[in-house]
Design a protein that fits this description.
Blueprint lengths: L14 H6 L11 E6 L3 E12 L2 E7 L2 E12 L2 E3 L6 E12 L2 E7 L2 E12 L2 E8 L12 E8 L2 E12 L2 E7 L2 E12 L6 E3 L2 E12 L2 E7 L2 E12 L4 E6 L7 E3 L12 H16 L4 E6 L7 H21 L7 E5 L17 H7 L2 E6 L2
Parallel strand pairs: 20-21
Antiparallel strand pairs: 1-18, 2-17, 3-16, 4-15, 5-14, 6-13, 7-12, 8-11, 9-10, 19-22, 20-22
Protein name: OmpA family protein
Organism: Winogradskyella flava
Main location: membrane
Length: about 375
């Protein structure tokens, strides 16, 4: 967990000593400074990928027919003899009733699946500082540990559809339809007197192809999806120094009051935060620690939880005003840091208990 280290820098030595210790150059006597380490800056980029390919669909337009009439001979001309008339026999003559054609059968497009892995958050690393508790040294810098922490990149798999084969057609031949008509032909010619027998005709109807079968094409557009990825825009880790009021380095009591047993901020408390903490955070890069306390009345565990909730409510309010949560630390102390003698079992006035129900803040360095 990222810890905040408080540094109080006073002008007690020459410039050469300050540079050797990595302290601010040209400090002013009586001024205090905090060390701020710039954070990594990130940005969101959008990338459009194809999740479904473009393809075509085909629709068959069937062949059309028309009916035509045709005059055909159904009885041939002949001669007739008086004494021996001609004799006939009937035969069947084939003809095409419907011409052959070719139909088209649609073979639909086929699809497959594929996936692609995108890095949605890059690999990051940086220094984190930790102050050892119960430091025996007067100089707190002797108890500071620096840890280089590395966080792995985050990835996401995106599944999309691929076109295996596009739509096509197969030819389906349809054979012609035939039938017959009957025809009488001379079997034996007439003899003796010759009499002319005229030919006979009839009209038949048949269907012929007017327009052949065809297809119409419809193109289905591809589908796309936009993937948002967070990438490192500017690497942090640069140390800067901010001049602050020396009084802000020690706990400062805020006139922030809560309803009994509640962590909800009142309107007057929000005004206090707007006038006190917001200008400090917006005009500098410093970080602050919010510390909340309760009086001794009530269960110790409940008071500890309530004080943490109250500190969190101040942090959440500052975040809602645009302050980065990484610059804020919330700590609840319950009734462990009373400012007077009003501990458990001690008879105290309401005003004395009120002095223990307080919220404090102090400036931290990164």
């Amino acid at each position: 967990m990222k810890q905040k280290l408080l540094l109080l820098v006073c002008f007690i030595a020459g410039i050469g000593f300050s540079q050797a210790q990595g302290l601010p150059t040209n400090p002013e006597p009586g001024k205090c400074y905090v060390k701020c380490i710039t954070k990594d800056e990130f940005k969101d980029v959008e990338e459009t990928i194809q999740t479904y390919p473009a393809y075509t669909t085909l629709k068959v337009v069937p062949a059309t027919y028309k009916t035509v009439e045709e005059r055909v001979l159904v009885k041939e001309a002949s001669k007739k003899f008086v004494y021996v008339p001609a004799t006939y026999e009937t035969v069947e003559v084939p003809y095409v009733k419907q011409e052959r054609r070719t139909d088209l059968k649609v073979v639909p497009a086929s699809f497959g699946n594929d996936s692609r892995t995108f890095e949605i958050y890059p690999k990051t690393s940086g220094w984190e500082y930790k102050v050892l508790e119960d430091c025996p040294s007067v100089d707190k810098d002797d108890c500071v540990a620096a840890c280089f922490v590395e966080y792995p990149a985050q990835s996401r798999d995106v599944t999309f559809t691929t076109l295996a084969s596009d739509a096509s057609t197969n030819s389906v031949p349809v054979p012609e339809q035939t039938t017959t008509y009957k025809k009488r032909v001379i079997k034996t010619p007439a003899r003796m007197d010759e009499i002319e027998i005229p030919a006979e005709y009839t009209t038949i109807k048949r269907r012929v192809v007017d327009t052949p079968a065809s297809t119409t094409t419809n193109t289905i557009p591809a589908q796309y999806q936009t993937v948002t990825r967070t990438v490192l825009d500017k690497k942090g880790g640069i140390t800067t120094w901010e001049e602050v009021d020396c009084e802000l380095l020690d706990p400062n009591v805020l006139p922030v009051f809560y309803e009994l047993g509640s962590a909800r901020l009142t309107g007057s408390s929000k005004t206090t935060i707007d006038n006190t903490l917001l200008p400090l955070l917006r005009d500098s890069n410093v970080s602050i620690e919010i510390m909340s306390h309760t009086d001794s009345r009530g269960n110790d565990d409940f008071n500890q939880s309530l004080s943490q909730q109250r500190a969190n409510s101040v942090v959440n309010y500052l975040v809602s005003k645009g302050i980065s949560r990484s610059r804020l630390t919330a700590r609840g102390f319950g009734e462990s840091r009373l400012t007077n003698r009003c501990s458990n079992g001690v008879d105290c006035s309401e005003a004395q208990h009120q002095r223990n129900r307080r919220t404090e803040f102090r400036v931290l360095s990164n």
